[in-house]
Amino acid sequence: MSVHDFWTPFALEPFINALIIGLSLASIWLVAALGLTIIYGTMGVINMAHGEFIMLGAYSAWVMQFFIGIPWLLCLPLSFFIVGGFGWLVERGLIRHLYDRPLDTLLATWGVSLVLVQSVRLIFGGEPQYIDVPDELSTVMNLGFIHIPWMRIFIFFVSLGLVAMTLAILFKTNMGIQIRAVMQNKEMAASFGINSKRVYGLAFAFGAGLAGISGAMFSGLKTIFPDMGLGYVVEAFLVVVTGGGEVLGSLATAGIMGELFSVFSYFTNDTFGRFVLFVLIVIFLRFRPQGIFTPSMARR
Amino acid sequence: MKISRRTFVTGTVAAAAGVAAGFPHIYMKDFGQAWGAKPWIKKDGNIKVGMLWSQTGNLSVVENDSTQVSLFAVDILNGRGGIAGKEIEPVVVDAKSDIKVYSEKATQLILRDRCVSVHGSYTSASRRAVMPIFMKWDHLYYYPTCYEGRECMQNIINTGPLANQHSFDLVPYMVKNFGPKVYLVGSNYIWPKESNKNVKVWLERAGGEVVGEDYIPLGGSEFSPVFNKVRQQEPDWIMSTVVGDSDIALHRQFLQEGFKSDKMPIAALTTGEIETAAMGNEAGAGHFLSAPYFQTLPNPVNEKFVNDYLGSKYGGGGVTHYNMEETYLGILIWAKGVERALEHTGGDWEAITPRMIRDVSGNWNGQGPVGLSDEESPEGKVWIDPDNFNIWLKPKIGQCGSDGQFTIVKEADEHVFPDPFSIYPERGVCKADGLHKPDGTVQKDVL
After folding, report:
1. B213 vs B208: CA distance, rounded Å
2. What domains, with CATH codes, occur in chain B?
């Protein structure tokens, strides 16, 4: 293999396309990581079942379309509520009892993920499933030399919308104020009459719901099968950890990671791009383990 | 407790004696053979055959079908009275999509269940994991999936296409009908890479050229960076060795990127009926697949096979695809091997060994290698190569229609020789007794 085979020379038009693809990748990783950011950032729970929540979102969209005939666009918000409800149950039944033992939440949620994958496989079978998306989203937008599939434009704007919604909920609503108060100091918040258990339950459900809607959205672009969660959870964790567990940190990290990966894989190839990206993240975390954005400290 | 010299010596001797009694293969080199003196097929028992597939885990997508079709084939044979009147008893185990479990279960099937042969594996990874066990016990494994070759072992029979047979016809066909420029996309593991080495050789002969080559991780489903380069390089067609769930994402995103299958089709080696069903009809339509078997093959044997299988209690999956058919052939070819072995021992069931079945499946007694005729095999006549124990077959090219089923657009004129070392002629030639190297030596068990 010569150097020329390995290295793609610079050309303006594909490079600009690569930058746009970077944005699209960033939006996919961001929306996959958003729910995890809430759960990890606010509650400190390392949710290993996050990828499986995404998978559940995809499967609930598929079930709604295949058995009931609900159109794909309507499946998205419904998946939010279905997986959110499921997340609420998981929190009530399991996570609630483990808040003082963060390492045990890791093991417990990993167990949940194994149970979910095997259950889905037993109920629906292991083979990949097909979901029908609107024809308008199955084509490409051509602007001169720029080509962007409508599906990716759609995912990009939905993920920005979800980030805006999350920020609005966290900073503009009573619920959000309560979440942030509990996040900073649970006992103090409780002594002011905030029901911290309820807040945790709702925050976990909200995070799970975000995973659900992202899974439903990915079902139009990627493959629906029981193990699909594995394909998202690594990037999601990288985004959350590098972003410091803050929503804006995740936004920035996903953007940078998406662009870096896209540009590297444009100049070299997919495998090498991934390799460089992961190495850069390891180096970055060596020197700044708290991530890009540091969570604000409680003032005591 | 204080350990005196005497108790220490006694203890050591006792422990050594225990180890020696418990693990005699430590000091007995030919223990396996000595142990194999117990008959594999008892005079008054059934013929036990192992089924080493995964019913759970990610490989179960394919291997569930393999299990079902194997049991279906055994049912057919037993319905005809078994092999020479003796019933076949399948021993099904679950390998759980885990390489370690494949090895454990292989040992169990050989030593505890005393199966006379084992059928199994969909991936090269699991085949390579179990083969040392089959070689250690001088046993016999049947591997039904397409694979990359470069192996020469004396304890395996393969019934799927080798890399050299797989793309042999496809590459010239695509170059002739669509043009010389090709972009190679594959999953990042051994089979796509070895397979693409073959593709490049055929491409050179057909006057084509590679304009790009990309591999994405197994299970990966993000193809936009690859498609960006495809758009830049403007190939005439895409050669895909992307497998499994990634393959579905590849075809869906191809469509979403605005590419057209009539302008720049994807020619694949593994996009079968399962995958086209899951990617949606629009995404599959117009693309090409090279395989020895398609569900739509227009011959009465295949029509009967499809109807019987889908109508049986095993046919819940709703399709028959190339890997299932190759598995089915594996069972039938195995049964013929056992018949010959029985003839070879003069009707003495207890003298049959796994290795004997393999040896008589090649050239034996002036009868040529075992094979299946046009009346037995859904894909048409096939036979085992008496030297390297892979299968002679006719690769076919199918074009996917808008219903997820394939139309055969070309069938090879002649059977293609399975050559595990086709692109490594310097390594030697694979014969029945091992790899004959250029320096005249013979190397056994080349894995």
Report:
1. 14
2. 47-161+298-384 (3.40.50.2300), 163-291+394-447 (3.40.50.2300)
Bridge partner residues of B398 (DSSP): B289, B408
Q: Are strands A146-149 and A140-143 parallel, antiparallel or unpaired?
A: antiparallel
Give residues 220 to 259 of B whose Cβ lies within 8 Å of A. 220-222, 224-226, 228-229, 231-232, 245-246, 248-249, 252-253, 255-258
* Of residues B241, B248, B315, B238, the one with CA closest to residue B277: B248
Looking at the 3D structure of chain A, how many domains does it have?
1
In whole angstroms, what separates CA B373 from the centre of its chain?
20
The reply to whether A162 falls in a domain is: yes
Domain coverage including residue A88: 28-228
Please determine, for residue B30, whether its predicted confidence score (pLDDT) is greater than 70.
Answer: no
The nearest CA of chain A is from the CA of B293 a distance in Å of 20
CA dihedral over B178, B182, B184, B190, signed as positive or negative? positive
> Looking at A100-114, B20-34, B213-227, which range is the least confident one?
B20-34
The answer to whether position A62 is within a domain reads yes
Helix (H, G, I), strand (E, B) or coil at B438: coil
**pLDDT below 50 — which residues of chain A?**
1-3, 298-300
Residues B308-354 have pLDDT tens digits of 999 999 988 788 999 999 999 999 999 999 999 999 999 999 999 99
Chain A: closest CA distance from residue B348 (Å): 44
Has residue A202 been placed in a domain? yes
**Cα torsion angle, A223, A225, A226, A227, sign:** negative
CB contact under 8 A, B256 and A142: no
